[in-house]
Amino acid sequence: MFYDKSKKEFDAEEFRNPGKEYRGCPFWAWNTKLDKGTLLREIDELDEMGMGGAHIHSRVGLNTPYMGEEFMSYVEACDEKMASKDMRCCLYDEDRWPSGTAGGMVTKDHRYRSRFLVMEPEDHMPDKEQAFLSAAGAVRSDERMLLAEYEIRQDKNGNLTGYTVSIPGEPEEEHIKIKDECSDDTQTVSRWRAYIEVSGGTPWFNNEAYVNTLDKAAMDRFVELTHERYYSRLRDSFGASIRSIFTDEPQMCLKEILTEPFEKRPLIMPFTDDLNDTFRKEYGFSLVGRIPELVWETESLSKARLFYHRHLVERFSEAFGDNVGEWCDRHGIGLTGHMMNEWTLFSSTSAVGEVMRPLKHFGMPGMDMLCDRRELTTAKQVQSISHQMGREGVMSEIYGVTGWHFDFRRHKLAGDWQAALGVTFRVPHLTWVSMAGEGKRDYPASIGHQSPWYKEYKYIEDHFARVNTVMTRGKSEVKIGVIHPIESYWALFGNRLQTGDQRESIESRYEELVSWMLYGLLDFDFISEAVLAEEEAEQRGIDFIAGCMHYACVIVPGLLTMRRNTADRLLSFAESGGNVVFLGNVPRYIDGDRDDVLTKLEARSKTVAYDRSE
Asked: How confident is the model at residue 381 (pLDDT cuts 50, 70, 90)?
């Protein structure tokens, strides 16, 4: 789909003079009143820079109605011009970012607006002022419904001893006992309410709201207003000059946690109208009846908390990545782009749950590398799912927020380490149509004609195009798989005072392991338990199967819990002679329960200290 010539034998002449398909396609910011002549001239400039095409990207300053008739006529003209120059016309699916609202057109209908859970103290007075972000943070509104009321009982350390649940319409209260009750003088009792709330509007989404990314019907409406409209106008170019559409930072409502267990303030968590129903169907109990366990600590691992995060990932992935990715497959193009907040376990848990599962149906999984950071964990997650799904490469939105001082040496260095970790589709951030008005402050640098050296940029693109003629051929031979630790992190996603140190330990070891492996020249892939749960191939023999990849060794890095499916597949692998290595400790839980399968697995595996010297 992306690299037609790479299906042929390597050609030395192609390496010397690489074609357009191996070259970068920058964000081309449509950020002013559009003019056809200007747009067509800038395509010539992009070609002169050595680019292989461009992403048509609506950004701050656009003064031509987004997705209107005039806008679409310019897209058609630009596609025709790029096709005539053998360049790629890459689509972008949103007015600015994050993706999902079609510039607010989806969420004019409140059925499709983001929902979230508000867990708040009984006597809380609502805040009058809010800060609006270019993300899916909660925007409070009066459009809400009471889910349940709770009487929370905590011991002197803040741990739950028990709670009472009262759900509107249900005649009896439910009493949940966590541990033996404390005496009255050591127990704190407080009352809380849980509401489901519909997001209010914000200027960033053109005075509408972010979309409900947990709802397939909402995402179907997004596809109808965006992808179907592009296809109706450009269908003859799909699979030819148009090979992909970019989705930017889809996310859930950002999760919040308390600072300490006795803090009394509202907490926001992702939710949707039928989440309790689908959760009960999947796990056999009511999520609404267990919401206190998402907030406060219990004596042992809370299955409700673990399964809540797991279920959110499935709902988000099925509604967005799977849904949109499969539409793209049916229409002859690939979904590319990246998730929100990929870097750390904390950031990805807060925004998307995990990174790999939502990318499963992307035709070209991607990442966003801002500020010239070295996010090795981000790159390895994206490269891993690309390997396992048999994709042709990895996309990187590169050079964002680097500034005007970022010279060619640093352009090459940033690109080189990413190429070493599998990046083949470069999306430089960015080139502007105009630098008038607010556009000039929009995350520079512009590498286009506003920079005096833009004609010299071909040196950079020639280098990476040559690298890509090689990197897009053959198949990666990776023999080590690492079970991703994100689900153990979810189990500890509670207040900072009680769980922060434990989460920081998992976080630092996660970063350390990636560095130890890569700088020790031991290539590996992460294995997402959510993706592995959908593996159709039976586990047998001395290769551990994860999609298109077969691993000779699997590392389990100090997990607290793992899925039964993961443990069963590892045990089968170990019993067939495969190598399973536990770093630091064997998990204590299987799906939140103690289980003898861990004892059997440990007996057939090797356990080493979580230390580089081992």
From this structure: very high
